[in-house]
Amino acid sequence: MPAAILPNSAAAEKLEALAAKLTEAASDLRAGTNASPQSHAKLVDTLRSTVEVVNRPTDDLNDMMMGFVQCTAIRLLLKWNVFENLPTEGTISYKELAAKVGGDESLITRLCWFLVATGMLKQEGADQVAHTARSRPYASVNPLSAMLMIGFDEYLPSFVHMPRYFDTYGAHEPSGRLHSIKASAEGQPELTATEIMYAQPERVSNMALAMSSMENMYPLAGVYDYSWIATAAAAKDADTDRALVVDVGGAKGHTLEAICKDTPGLPLERCVLQDLPEVIEVVKGMARESKAGPKMVGMDFFNEQPIKGALVYIIRRCLHDFSDKECIRILTHLSNAMAPDSRLLIGETVLSNPPSRPTAMVDLLLSTIGGKERTIDGFNKIAERAGLKVSGVHRASFGDFSIIEYKKA
Ligand SMILES: C[S@@+](CC[C@H](N)C(=O)[O-])C[C@H]1O[C@@H](n2cnc3c(N)ncnc32)[C@H](O)[C@@H]1O
Q1: Cα 251 to ligand 1 centre (Å)
Q2: How many whole angstroms from 216 Cα to the centroid of ligand 1?
Q3: With contact defined as beta carbons under 8 Å apart, do 349 and 400 qualify?
Q4: So what's the pLDDT on residue 27?
Q5: Is Repressor a UniProt keyword of this protein (predicted)?
Q6: CATH number of this structure's domain 8-139, picked from the four choices 2.170.270.10, 2.40.128.270, 1.10.10.10, 3.40.50.720
Q7: Residue 271, SS3?
Q8: I want to staple 109 with a disulfide (CB 3.0 to 4.6 A). Which of 65, 84, 94, 307 is the partner?
Q9: All structural domains of the chain with their residue ranges
Q10: Are 285 and 276 in contact (CB under 8 A)?
Q11: CB burial class (10 A; 0-12, 13-18, 19+) of residue 407?
């Protein structure tokens, strides 16, 4: 049998330290003081570290293969509405379940058995199956089930295609919107991933729903102090026509709303929401007439920035979709529009070196469309090329999200 990774005494010491952490987590659970996503994430990390202490390479391999088999089993059961047809409470026989979804009893049973084996479904007796708390979310359309489908349908084919892609293009970092891994995997290398997705609106809406499950990784408020903008706007000699905050690629305007709600004296009507014209049309259609909102401007951030000299420009969660060269183009348009006292805020995940697990994963997911996560140095390098100089880095209290402030160099 292959040896454990650590010598026994070192593994025992680590396990004892982790056991103390788990005992602490158990008392937090009992006291109900474990409610925050941060304490849950810490607990998951502790458990993972425990597995890492004891796993042998064969166990690692087994876990990896379990991961993709489990993902496939869930995807198929979702496709055939099996989770939806399991009773919310109580059990159903495999025979009845298969009849309800119109599949072979033997096929449905084998897929369910895999999930029973991993603890996601529960079996009673020899032929009765039931939901657990871990399977119930897959019984409806929600960000979690959409993310599973997106992971399987949109990303996995690109990963499977990677060996062939690199045979063709060599071992070079994929960059640029054309000839991306995703487009090549779909047999359309001359299209961008966005063009491919937008041709099928159902894929876009699934992606949007799935992305909302990741929103707690990117806090909207509490990372950067915007109060200086309200102070500047209230100054006696302030130019009342000057845009205060322009959110570039701001989608439905949720960032601007959160900032203004959190910052007394910062009026939403003095802010500008920018996105692609087709997105702005949809957002305008959704806007309530009674509510004062930002000015909405359809634009393309690869072209000249139409609002000049705003106090602040924000570009949040956009640059990671693009290569360095493309980002320099986007940032140069912003830099050219900025006044000497304007500030640019880049809101993005910032890679640590080495990166955390979730960020390292998202970085490779982004590689499939020619995008990437960046370290602070990575952001500063592209910003410098666009005539900008870093003036502050504001990290979220939890996770890898940061707001980096730049001024004109
Ligand atoms: C991942 S979303 C980020 C949305 C928002 N900033 C946030 O932080 O949640 C990227 C946004 O960039 C917009 N976008 C993509 N390409 C663009 C372009 N060339 N010009 C303007 N907006 C663009 C998309 O429509 C989308 O709303």
Answers
A1: 6
A2: 18
A3: yes
A4: 86
A5: no
A6: 1.10.10.10
A7: strand
A8: 94
A9: 8-139, 143-215, 218-408
A10: no
A11: middle
The C-alpha atoms of residue 323 and residue 226 are separated, in whole angstroms, by: 29
The C-alpha atoms of residue 148 and residue 151 are separated, in whole angstroms, by 5
The span from the CA of 121 to the CA of 83, in Å, is 10
Residue 333: CB partners within 8 Å, gap ≥ 6?
301, 302, 303, 304, 305
pTM of the model: 0.89
**Parallel/antiparallel/unpaired status of strands 245-248 and 312-316:** parallel
Place of tokens 């026989």: 93
Task: Please name the residue whose Cα sits nearest to atom 3 of ligand 1.
Answer: 317
How big, in percent rounded to 5, are the helix, strand and coil portions of the chain? 55, 15, 35
List, for residues 149-177, the tens digit of each pLDDT value: 999 999 999 999 999 999 999 999 988 88
Among 193, 176, 181, residue whose Cα is nearest residue 324: 176
Q: From edge to edge, which strands make up the β-sheet containing 92-93?
A: 92-93, 128-131, 121-124
Ligand 1 contact, 255 CB (< 6 A): yes
Out of 303, 315, 318, mutate this one to test ligand 1's pocket (max ligand atoms within 8 Å of CB): namely 318
> Active-site residue among 161, 179, 254, 320?
320
- Strand 401-408 vs strand 343-349: parallel, antiparallel, or unpaired? antiparallel
For the Cβ of 276 lying below 6 angstroms from any atom of ligand 1, the answer is yes
**Burial (CB count within 10 angstroms: exposed 0-12, middle 13-18, buried 19+), residue 260:** buried
262 alpha carbon – ligand 1 mean position (Å): 22
How many angstroms does the Cα of residue 38 sit away from the middle of ligand 1?
28
Cβ–ligand 1 distance for 300 under 6 Å, the answer yes
Taking residue 16's Cβ as centre, other Cβ atoms within 10 Å add up to 9
Which CATH architecture fits 218-408?
Answer: 3-Layer(aba) Sandwich (3.40)
Residue 252 alpha carbon, nearest atom of ligand 1: 27
For ligand 1, mutation pick of 257, 276, 303 (most atoms within 8 Å of CB): 276
Residues of the chain with pLDDT below 50 are 1-3
CB 317 near ligand 1, within 6 Å: yes
